[in-house]
UniProtKB/TrEMBL annotation, chains A, B, C, D:
<dbReference type="GO" id="GO:0006145">
    <property type="term" value="P:purine nucleobase catabolic process"/>
</dbReference>
<feature type="binding site">
    <location>
        <position position="242"/>
    </location>
    <ligand>
        <name>urate</name>
    </ligand>
</feature>
<dbReference type="GO" id="GO:0005777">
    <property type="term" value="C:peroxisome"/>
</dbReference>
<feature type="binding site">
    <location>
        <position position="49"/>
    </location>
    <ligand>
        <name>5-hydroxyisourate</name>
    </ligand>
</feature>
<comment type="similarity">
    <text>Belongs to the uricase family.</text>
</comment>
<dbReference type="Pfam" id="PF01014">
    <property type="entry name" value="Uricase"/>
</dbReference>
<keyword id="KW-0560">Oxidoreductase</keyword>
<keyword id="KW-0659">Purine metabolism</keyword>
<feature type="binding site">
    <location>
        <position position="150"/>
    </location>
    <ligand>
        <name>5-hydroxyisourate</name>
    </ligand>
</feature>
<feature type="binding site">
    <location>
        <position position="48"/>
    </location>
    <ligand>
        <name>O2</name>
    </ligand>
</feature>
<feature type="binding site">
    <location>
        <position position="216"/>
    </location>
    <ligand>
        <name>urate</name>
    </ligand>
</feature>
<dbReference type="GO" id="GO:0004846">
    <property type="term" value="F:urate oxidase activity"/>
</dbReference>
<comment type="pathway">
    <text>Purine metabolism; urate degradation; (S)-allantoin from urate: step 1/3.</text>
</comment>
<feature type="binding site">
    <location>
        <position position="242"/>
    </location>
    <ligand>
        <name>5-hydroxyisourate</name>
    </ligand>
</feature>
<feature type="binding site">
    <location>
        <position position="216"/>
    </location>
    <ligand>
        <name>5-hydroxyisourate</name>
    </ligand>
</feature>
<protein>
    <recommendedName>
        <fullName>Uricase</fullName>
        <ecNumber>1.7.3.3</ecNumber>
    </recommendedName>
</protein>
<keyword id="KW-0576">Peroxisome</keyword>
Length: 284, 284, 284, 284
């Protein structure tokens, strides 16, 4: 296959205000032919320069109403224009520009980059197959300072980890979900709702939180919550990269440290991941 | 000199709520002695492990009411405890954890990382000299989609840049300022006010903005605005790393692109920087 | 599944000389159970801390004669020790320490890091399935200053790329191959031979090189060369990330630039990849 | 001041062989004027686009016989061409392409990137001042597996570090030195000699090494060795970023680990640095 990545900015007006979408688009193509590899015959090869031009032309003509719609447009274009394309996948990721506000007043043309979780999507299609749309959020860093533990795990002669019922839970979250048939979805609205669900399930109620007995259970809670609240989601994958924090032992320094000063442990580094679909969910 | 970097988390309660400060502290020491370099005599050397312990103990004992106060505490400790220290500098940088909110309600113990500009500070002192405190913000990415140009510059046979009166102004901002005598400053409050001043000066009024004839002038506007509004600031340094955006030429593709689709130019990469002090300001 | 990454150094003596292996080991486990996700029941969960301990204990007991043998040892340990493990995959990557030489004499205990391509391997096993071993090289940056072109490709209204018969070919290579049944392989020796084959196929004969009509053909040449020379390789995947170089147009500056000064084009960025197996090879 | 960074490749022939220099050039200018900052008057501003053009034109016209000569050419050009330039500094860094060899035969046009220490240089000049040339090496990662300790350091109530006489010494080295009057220097030859001196002083004799009582002493040994062997060096600065390795305690796992398995300690992270000049050296 061949791959091309292009980053660009699409500017348009909504009334008097400037709107800006900066995206990175990565397009994968797999051709039906093999002659370019085996014989050096390039007659069916679509240069990355052409892929780039097509992405830019579609952005100019269609605009970017949502990342998902733009990815769908690109897939459709390649499938309908080039019969030598056997498979196309388009990944679109957003630079998180937000409009600046001064004393609550939105600025007409100024923006600030706020990377508190990056929105992305993916559309893919095999020739004669359905177009499948995924969306997701990545690089979302979250922390709970309490209401997290890890006890009752499997033990043998290589176990040195003590049981803990009050630890820090901190990690970087990656979530990716697929939509079913995408008829008339408001992708922007659904995405915002899912982001809220993720935060709610991670944190629990604002006044007391919810106890997490493991990273695994927190991953599952996020998946269950999204599936139960957002009917358009078919399958959801969650990966949680853990950052562990150790309470600094200050006995040798003559002090008692009761979960006040902690240092992040860079190694060992762990993550846990799970993919949960709607059927499995209802069967469980 | 010797240098040590330690990253840690300081947790405390404010009423029922958990509060969290995660900081990276880098401490530089220069000793009065040279024997450790010339003779391998370590008798005056303070191991980095000891520096680390001291930083952690001070965090435990004093807490971190502000980055600046914590940096001052560290400098004071090293100057008063070790007579072999000729110079100490402490740099403190914050991990931008923000409390999560659900429907406007603050969560009791859950946080999200929002890196829209990183707060840092620096305190330094030579033996027998004053303690000087700096504060700053870095990695602050801003964009204006209009109200920016660059015309009337110097031209010779190597000039190929066209004049432009409506370009994108985009860049990453670094600001660092020094305070005078730091008696009873509310460092957290002042820092927030300066951040607001920076955004105001960059963007101009929310309804129309303000024309920027160059990156240089924007840098200067930020400096002037901060100096005029925040009396505690003595000297302010601003560096603006530019990201240029080129309008994609779509003539060969049969389209007219009027500042709708642009690509960032990764090379050449430029920046402009200026340091402005209070006296210079009033004399200018 | 759960994942753990640990980086460590294994030191041993060969005669009077110190030998050093610094590796990063990433172990993935998938359990037969789901109760840890669904119910928060941790009784079958193997903590990442235990995984880390096991990797370190195996390094201490067995040493690291080759990355591949070490990965095999880890997989075997998890499969035979824990009946709740449904699948294990171990990735091992080397820090490329090389012994220092002074005037051709090898130093007894000093090393330099030379990252001209990073060696890695992977071993994976499903319960009741065979143990499969992969090896590879990544981050290998290569350049040909001539004997490369790209002509005769597919053209339509979105094509703007000119045909070229003398361009720079530059890229970062990733190669990963699988071994069949690994009885008594000398993994270190085979890996070195494959690395040589890759370089030979990329560059062609030292006195004249070999013309590359496309990145695709170069990828295929590498695969064919390795498969024909190294009988232990079953399947080989090659990914070549392209860096394009544009000849700087100096007409406006009054100069003729004949492929003397070129700038790398960071966007658009492309890559091409192919996986080739032995059967497919002989059938082609 | 204003700054511009440009990365490019300079290709030329030596006999039948292709030679390649890929460099990143960063040019700083400070103007005599302040009107561009204060008034938005750009009439003396040299656009970064023009700076880029000049660097490329000089590369085309003069070639890059050495990084240092190229940096000198750039400084000279700016000082003699633009009277509004008060100060110019040019930093040049090399992409470490090395010619490929097959069975010892050098390839006519193929190269591999080998980043075992990056060569760089700097030339700077104030109007009416001398042109000063620096050269250096950075990102040079070295390790000694023995012949290193740290004992007899300063101790107080915050000391927890045990004394050690056989530890790993590992770090990333940065060296930068200045030349005096640069009449007819063979910069490439001198640079290679200094690199050798650095490695010799770090490692000691190949058969037995040399004991290092501290990072500080190793830094000093490198400086002394370079100053004594290379008369053209006036002042040398060395920074050594330490990576500490801890011997894994395996008592709880029923094993005795005698400096066989070690893990790198990512925090606390330290470095030590020293600048040593010729006069100070002879007086010491």
């Amino acid at each position: 296959y061949g791959k091309n990545t292009i980053k660009f900015l699409r500017l348009h007006k909504e009334g008097k205000k400037d709107c800006v979408k900066e995206v990175e688009v990565c397009t994968h193509l797999r051709l039906t032919s093999a002659q370019e590899y085996l014989e050096g015959n390039n007659s069916l090869v679509i240069p990355t320069d052409t892929i780039k031009n097509i992405v830019l032309v579609l952005a100019k003509k269609n605009g970017i109403s949502s990342l998902e719609q733009f990815a769908i447009d690109i897939c459709n274009h390649f499938m309908t224009t080039f019969c030598q394309v056997a498979y196309v996948k388009t990944y679109v990721q957003e630079v998180p520009w937000q409009r600046l506000h001064e004393d609550g007043v939105p600025h007409i043309h100024s923006f600030i980059c706020v990377p508190d979780g990056i929105r992305f999507c993916e559309a893919e299609q095999c020739r004669n197959g359905p177009l499948i749309v995924f969306a997701g959020i990545k690089d979302l860093k979250l922390m709970k300072t309490t209401q997290s533990g890890f006890e009752g795990f499997y033990k043998n002669e290589h176990t040195t980890l003590p049981e803990r019922h009050d630890r820090i839970l901190c990690g970087e979250l990656f979530c990716k979900w697929s939509y079913g048939e995408c008829k008339d979805f408001d992708f922007n609205c659904i995405w915002k709702k899912i982001r809220e669900c993720i935060l709610e399930a991670f944190a629990g109620p604002p006044d007391c939180g919810e106890y997490s007995p493991s990273y695994q259970k927190t991953v599952n809670s996020i998946q269950m919550h999204v599936l139960s609240r957002v009917s358009q989601v078919q399958v959801i994958e969650v990966v949680l990269n853990n950052t562990f924090y150790n309470i600094v032992d200050m006995k040798n320094l003559g002090l008692t440290n009761e979960k006040e000063v902690l240092v992040p442990v860079e190694a060992p580094y762990g993550s846990c991941a799970c993919t949960l679909g709607r059927k499995k969910f209802f069967e469980a």
